[in-house]
Amino acid sequence: MPFEKAVVFRLNNEEFAIDIQQVERILGFIEPTKVPESPYFIKGIIKYQNNILPIMDLNAKFNKQNNDNINSKIIVVKHNEKSIGLLVDDVQEVIDVKKDEIESTPEVISQYSNKYINGILKKRK
Q1: For the whole prediction, is pTM greater than 0.70?
Q2: Does residue 53 contact residue 85 with C-beta atoms inside 8 Å?
């Protein structure tokens, strides 16, 4: 396949992307129920397809200012056969990504963040 698709989303006026194959669904904002003693980046839980879905606030996780944006969305992703909701400021679009548009992560960054960053997408003009 000459390209992959990615979902582009915003966090605090910066754009990020996630492989569309990891995305199960995109939901409008649903106020999560807080869970006592959960990590600071877990906003709470919501009911999703007759299950409980934890909601991770990516602004909090990546130490970014929380925007409390009315356009906030929850990107439901599958990780190790479990679903988690990623709270983002907004979902922009689905794009085609050619393999040659992805640069490898610089070594200085990959030492600390390769859990989250698989590569850097070259900015389109």
Answers
A1: yes
A2: yes
